[in-house]
Write a structure and sequence with these properties.
- With 124 residues, the chain is an all-beta fold.
- It has one domain: Lipocalin (Beta Barrel), CATH 2.40.128.
- 0% of the residues lie in helices and 66% in strands.
- The protein contains no helices and 9 strands.
- It has an 8-stranded antiparallel beta barrel with strand order 1-3-4-5-6-7-8-9.
- A hairpin with an 8-residue loop joins strand 6 and strand 7.
- The chain is globular, with a radius of gyration of 14 Å.
- The two termini are 23 Å apart.
Length: 124
């Protein structure tokens, strides 16, 4: 019987958008569209890096609502700007037909009210 992460346990790469918004609008310093490479192993560990803004990802993928949807909890560290460094949660959707992975992370802060996001479509 295959493990739940066997289909996504590879190296994925593509462009990622990093951004943050407050009630007053976007935080310009946080916005970047840069290459992202992630690796998911068969046990669900996820690691990754966007070298252009320094962000490193470390976390865990868990099963989701179907065999193609997964939950993610991960930390971003070493980001430039540092305001992106925090704990995130999100989802992965595996699109088998076109061989892509939808990857999204979100974090919230209350003081001031801010939402931080990472969004990407990745390919093998």
């Amino acid at each position: 019987m295959p493990a739940p992460f066997d289909q996504i346990a590879v190296r994925w790469q593509g462009q990622a958008e990093y951004f943050a918004n407050t009630a007053q609008g976007p935080i310009g310093a946080a916005h970047a569209v840069v290459p992202l490479v992630i690796q998911i192993d068969s046990g669900g560990k996820i690691t990754g890096e966007s070298t252009e803004n320094g962000c490193q990802i470390l976390g865990l993928v868990t099963t989701g609502s179907s065999t193609m949807n997964f939950r993610v909890r991960a930390s971003l560290t070493h980001c430039r700007p540092p305001l992106l460094n925090r704990r995130y949660q999100g989802q992965i959707a595996h699109y088998v037909k076109n061989g892509t992975l939808g990857f999204g992370l979100t974090a919230n802060s209350t003081k001031p009210a801010t939402q931080y996001n990472v969004s990407s479509t990745l390919m093998r």
